[in-house]
Design a protein that fits this description.
Blueprint: H1 2-14, H2 28-40, H3 49-53, E1 61-66, E2 70-75, H4 88-95, E3 103-111, E4 114-123, E5 131-132, E6 139-140, E7 144-152, H5 164-171, H6 177-199, H7 201-206, E8 209-213, H8 216-219, E9 237-238, H9 249-260, E10 263-265, H10 269-282, H11 310-328, H12 331-345, H13 364-371, H14 374-382, H15 395-400, H16 421-433, H17 452-482, H18 486-489, H19 518-538
Length: 539
Amino acid sequence: MEELNVSLALEDSLSGSESSDEEIDSDSGHDAVSTLVDKQKPRKRSISPELSTRRGPRTAISWFHSSPSTQIGVYRVLFPYDIPEDDHLQALKDLQEAKSGGRSWAMFMVAGGHFAGAIVRVSNAGKESEVQSKKTKKPVSDMEVLRHKTFHRYTTRRKQGGSQSLNDNAKGNAKSAGAQLRRYGEQALREDIRALLSDWEEEIHDCEIIFIRASGANRKIFMDYEGSPISKTDERLRTFPFPTRRPTQSELSRCLQELTRVKVSHFTEEALRAQDEAYLASLPKPKPIPAIPVPLAPEKPKSKQVKLSKEEEILREKWQRLVEMVSKGRLEPLIAFWEREGNNLGGINVRLPEWIGEKRVATLLQLATFSGQEDVTNWMLEMCADPTIPVPRSEDEADSVEGEESASKRRRTAYDLAQSRSIRDVFRRNAGAHPDWWDWFGAAHIPSALSKEMEDGREEKKKVRRKGLKDRLKEREAKEKEKPTAEESTPFISIPSIGPHKLGGSAGDTAGTAGLTLEMKAKIERERRARAAEARLKK
């Protein structure tokens, strides 16, 4: 391989070769590799213990180090898969030796309906690996393209990508003419490639490496069919270890040059060690495996339902009825029920039991206020229900009021639960009617009392406001009546009452359109012509 031999010879001279011959003999490539092997064996760079214990993902290139600061890289796909990494240097040396029949590679690419294939001899058998021209004194390449072929079929949708078969599998078979052509193109491409493989079967059998660039669906074209020269488990199969472009003959040549060209770098051992440490530091740290398994938290035993006695069941039923009547505003049955069971339940200011589940209120008055029942709230206040009992606070409300100075701001009462003005007026009326019963304007949080005179004054203001609105509305209607409307400005057209009336009058009659605007006349004319056309169609 010319590119490989020349690069290795160059690295040998950079590494301190004392050869002063002006001409390169036939064994210069082989001597360069031998010299490189001799230099590397005693001076093999020691691997850091962290690198030996912690393996990262392998790169596509295998690097060989030659002291003091030269590195040579060769693609790993050129070496057999079944040999360890430490034997790559010996495998590289074996690649420089002559082989009976020569060394040949097969290269195939298929994508987007384009196919390119070639059989390439990378070294000739029984010949010198490098020949020097007498005139130019430059090495002549011994790579030779034995067979090559390219062709194209219409298989993909323009500017949309994806083969027709993938589109059919995802969305179902399309019935367009383009879909039929693409299906035919895929079948023809598959048949052409397999026919080509059958023609090149002998050359493929002699190849050392087979490079295939194809997607999952297109890869099945090359193998695992009846009479296939390439097996799916063939150890010679390789993929291109670098990005490739559209399959063409020039792209195959570029890939061949890339595979046979040696990569050269110049780093000291300290720089390489620093690169290793930086690479290891960039890798994600593995999660530590706990030595002792963490015991699972024991499941909490399910609380058993307490069996209630008959008296407790009756009491709970009474409370449920009471809460339902208060929250739904059923005042008459509530009064009858309370006269019968009020003393047994604990009075008007009794606390609601916890098992009811009403965490937002604590008393019946608070429940009626929160539910918006005006009549029930007024009845309870007349029954001396305490409006100063604080409302229970949730955890969020307790956290939000921390740090406030006034204690009255940290507590709410039944009046604070009122969600409408009518409910708040109930509290204010009772505060004005019974000012000595409770601390209405302090602990109960009621802003002011509401008397009968205040309510009458409010209603009087409402009446005055409504009357003013009605007067303004009447004035506006009167002004609109004084203005001439569009209908009044249009002159009235009298139509004779004898005989059938038709819009626009009879043909040639212009008396019916006198005084009309041009737009109205045009509209009447269009309707007259439309009726005449309909009459002709009926005949």
